[in-house]
Design brief:
Strand 1 and strand 2 form a beta hairpin. It is globular, with a radius of gyration of 24 Å. The strands form two sheets. It has a two-stranded antiparallel ribbon. The chain is mostly helical.
């Protein structure tokens, strides 16, 4: 919510309070009062912290306030495991990917809880605000896969590492926080998945990349692990040439490593 001013008020909140108190607002353009009737206001707010200010009592006195407790890990696991298991079994995934389902749910929830507790929002990191939608985005990323492209437990583990990196890791802004994230991701892979994947397999020289760009014109677009980097670069170059042939404004792009990685992240977000 807006920062509290000198006298304890928050201007946008005071505007809403005026609407509740007087059933209307003053139109400064037409210089007349506008009555608003038959309006019910339902508001939701997170606990004050990380840039969120306490709501003024003059505003909350108009509401019946209900506090919702945080969902326990068991409740979250039940919700998301039902979604993921239903998708994997309904699409006839092989036993390897299916065996990773429980580890995916538990590890995602644990990373969410740890990052919420240990990497809190500050004035320099005001966007470090994580919520349950981030967990659902990871699961949503897993649901973009297809049984043809995810046939082994190893590929499913790489997919999970990619999704948590896109949802959580890409929001971290310094080396210390990024190292904290990669360490905890590798710890989860080792402990929950019993995986042999190491730093270089996911975050080092061989960065994990999932995309559907290699077969974008196919009848079934597979969200797959991209391991052939020369082929990926050639595909991007071909699309660039097609664009330049059809457009009067040419783009002379150089597909260096960071540019390619950012393009893959953008494609995932658009997908």
């Amino acid at each position: 919510m807006p920062q509290v001013e000198e006298y304890g008020a928050q201007p946008p909140i005071e505007l809403l309070r005026l609407l509740i108190d007087k059933s209307g607002m003053f139109d400064r353009k037409e210089w007349e009062w506008k009555s608003i009737n038959g309006c019910t206001i339902v508001a939701a707010a997170a606990p004050p912290s990380g840039g969120r200010a306490v709501l003024t009592p003059r505003f909350t006195t108009h509401f019946n306030v209900m506090c919702m407790p945080q969902a326990t890990q068991g409740v979250l696991a039940k919700i998301f495991s039902s979604i993921l298991d239903g998708y994997l079994k309904g699409n006839n995934y092989q036993e390897g990917p299916l065996s990773c389902s429980l580890a995916i749910i538990d590890s995602t929830i644990e990373i969410y809880q740890k990052i919420s507790e240990e990497l809190r929002a500050t004035p320099a990191k005001f966007h470090y605000m994580f919520n349950l939608r981030d967990v659902s985005k990871v699961i949503q990323g897993i649901l973009m896969s297809h049984p043809k492209s995810i046939q082994t437990a190893d590929t499913m583990q790489r997919l999970w590492a990619n999704e948590v990196s896109r949802v959580f890791g890409d929001r971290l802004i310094n080396v210390e926080d990024t190292k904290w994230f990669t360490d905890i991701t590798l710890e989860m892979l080792n402990r929950s998945f019993r995986s042999a994947l190491e730093f270089n397999d996911l975050f080092g020289e061989r960065k994990v990349i999932f995309s559907d760009i290699l077969k974008i014109d196919a009848a079934v677009r597979l969200y797959e692990n991209v391991t052939d980097i020369p082929k990926l670069n050639k595909t991007l170059t071909n699309y660039l040439e097609e664009y330049n042939l059809s457009s009067s404004v040419k783009m002379n792009l150089v597909f260096f490593e960071d540019a390619v990685l950012h393009l893959m992240k953008i494609l995932r977000a658009l997908r």
